[in-house]
Amino acid sequence: MGHIGVICPNTPGHVNAMLALADATRARGHRVTFFLLGEPPISVTAAGFKTVSLGGTVFPPDQYRTQVERLGSLQGLAALKHTLSIGARAAEAVLEVGPTVVRTAGVTALVVDQASFPGGTVADQLGLPFATVCNALLLNPDPAVPPYFTYWQPRDAGWARVRNRIAWAGLNRLYIPILARIQNHRRRLGLPVPAGISNVWSDRLQISQQPEVFEFPRRELPKHIQFVGPLRLSVGDQPVPFPWERLDGRPLIYASLGTLQNRIAGMFRVIAEACDGFDAQLVISTGNGVSPEGLGKLPGDPVVVSYAPQMDLLRRSTVAVTHAGLNTVLEALGTGLPMVAIPVTNDQPGIAARVAWIGAGEVITSKHVTPQTLRAAVVRVRSDPSYRAAAERVRDAIHVSGGASRAAELIEQSLLLGT
């Protein structure tokens, strides 16, 4: 059978999705190895997968960790630019180190995260088939669709298409440092040179963990894109300690700002103040950016933990307050839970825009969130049943989308594994 190499950003949202896909691929008889920048994630090694470093001396693990941690304190365009600067340095490391370590490992095919832009070039250099997996929002450009970093809704109007084209052009300028490294590397090897960032992705198979209903109507989406829904482990989440005894029987409001852009401690206080006095109990998960003790005493005395059994709490909640990271949003929608989104950066504004577009929640920009605006939004989402009905429609679509098992099947077929 095949030996699959996985290349993806070494952050929980990307690694966890790829881990689910790797587990489903292994269940079909294939071997899987992760090739990552930074330090090997415990979740990957605990699941029995080998990890190989991609950084070498170009982007050592400690420097990678420092750059990713810095992202947690940034917002908006500054955070997006920092993300892409990490991507440019990652491209240097992957292009220099990747071919050697992947060849040495004896990999027969690659599965590359859409945000790991140089991964496809490693595959082409070694003559390996590869598939692209979109673990964030779809990055594919389309003038009919606003770019992923905007809050805009799709509009079938000339002015909207012009606006979209201008914004996509601006994003392409930010991609130039990454794209130029890929172009120069391929030119030296005599490989076809991509004209734009969308040309670095697989022309065999692109898999999105969005359900199709959670994507704006598109005009220029490649035919080889498959929507399979959330990539989650079939065995469920690993147990996470939680003070269940502190829950007092009131309906729950669950709040999380994810695992990366979560070091803005003041936002947690805004959330607590907004939810104080409700006929509900607030649970806050701070992630690894802020310790619960560092927040001090919050209004309403919410339950505050570093990590939470998120799916269990979402199933018990009446609304989620979220940064609109794709994994958290899909997990909430997978339980039919509506939400209030407070996007911070990267693709989160685009994800939040889709939440509002399908009617499953409301959006407040991080610049405009106050206890008063957040409280009003939470009241509306909790009291109006249309929000939950919309979330439940997406839940039903997720349940039939196939998830990781369907993605593994598609990869096996497309990359001709085992033949």
Cα(first) to Cα(last) distance is 8 Å
Helix/strand order: EHEHEHHEHEHEEEHEEHEHEHEHHH
Supply the helix-strand structural class.
Answer: alpha/beta
* Helix percent band: 40-55%
Shape: globular
Strand tally: 13
The largest β sheet comes out as: 7 strands, parallel
Looking at the structure, the CATH topology of the largest domain is Rossmann fold
What's the total helix number? 13
Estimate what percentage of residues fall within beta strands: 5-15%
What is the averaged pLDDT score? 93
Kindly provide the radius of gyration, computed on alpha-carbon positions and rounded to a whole number of angstroms.
21 Å
- Strand order across the biggest sheet? 3-2-1-4-5-6-7
Q: How many distinct folded domains?
A: 2
CATH class category of the largest domain: Alpha Beta
Uncertain parts: none
Give the full name of the CATH homologous superfamily of the largest domain. Glycogen Phosphorylase B
Q: Based on the structure given, which CATH architecture of the largest domain is correct? A: 3-Layer(aba) Sandwich
